[in-house]
Structures are given as structure tokens and as C-alpha cells.
Amino acid sequence: MLVAISISPSGTPLAGSPAPDGGVSDAVAAALQVVRDSGLPHELNAMFTNIEGEWDEVMAVVKRAVEVVGERYPRVGLVLKADVRPGWDGQLTAKVERVEERLR
Fold first, then answer.
1. For 2-45, how does the pLDDT look when each residue is reduced to its tens digit (9 = 90+)?
2. What does the H/E/C string look like for 48-63?
3. Which residue ranges does the record annotate as region Disordered (predicted)?
4. pLDDT in tens, 61-72
5. Domain holding 6: CATH number?
6. What domain range includes position 39?
7. How many domains does one find in the chain?
8. Hey, how many other C-beta atoms are within 10 angstroms of the C-beta on 63?
9. Residue 16: what pLDDT?
10. I need a labelling partner for 61 at 20 to 30 A (CA). Which of 17, 29, 41, 52 fits?
11. C-alpha pair distances (Å), 36 with each of 13, 19, 32, 42, 78
């Protein structure tokens, strides 16, 4: 399965949480670290983080990433889009390659 997630903290950072410039990049970086530590194939772009893996392992990573942000902020928004296609691996890049091929 492929998922695209966007995790958005909101509210005033909890005591001891870094947000010196009023931005949320520290919280987003903490969520991304959870994804990286999972070892699952993933990619970061300006709006989402894409993750590939089996349902349970991907959802466990998403849950932990939300929890990490929730340790820093009182409210966390999650946008998740999933492509559930059992038996297909390597689609993180293959889907893009199929589209790019049609543009050549």
C-alpha cells in the first residue's frame, strides 16, 4: 500500500516544545524521523510524506508520527490518502515512472 500523509500541529506548543520562530518545522521533522526510523520506503515533498509498506506497518508508523507531534502540540491534524493494492510493491517510484514514460 501507498499512503500520503500530512501531519499538522496546531495551537500553542506545549511547555518545553521547540518552536522558536512560531513555525512547525520542528514538529514535522520529528514526525519524519519516525518515518525514517521505520525503514519503510518513503519520500518527502513540500506537502506530504509518502510511505510504502504493508497495512499494519504503515498505519503503525502513521500513528506513532501523530503521537510524536501530539507530544509537542495540543492538537494534531492528519490528512491521509491511501492506495490499497495488495501484491504490488515498488509503487512509490513505479507509478511516477509510468506517467513520465507517457510524456516521452
1. 999 999 999 888 887 776 676 788 899 999 999 999 999 999 99
2. CEEEECCHHHHHHHHH
3. 1-21
4. 999 999 999 999
5. 3.30.70.930
6. 2-102
7. 1
8. 12
9. 78
10. 17
11. 24, 22, 6, 8, 18
pTM metric for this prediction: 0.90
CA–CA distance, 1 with 3 (Å, rounded to integer): 7
77 CB-near residues (< 8 Å, 6+ apart): 6, 7, 8, 9, 10
What are the grid coordinates assigned to 22, written together?
Answer: 512560531
In angstroms, the CA 81 to CA 86 distance is 16
Could you give the CA distance from residue 104 to residue 90 in angstroms, rounded to a whole number?
A: 22
Grid cell digits, residue 47: 506537502
One-letter amino acid of 69: V
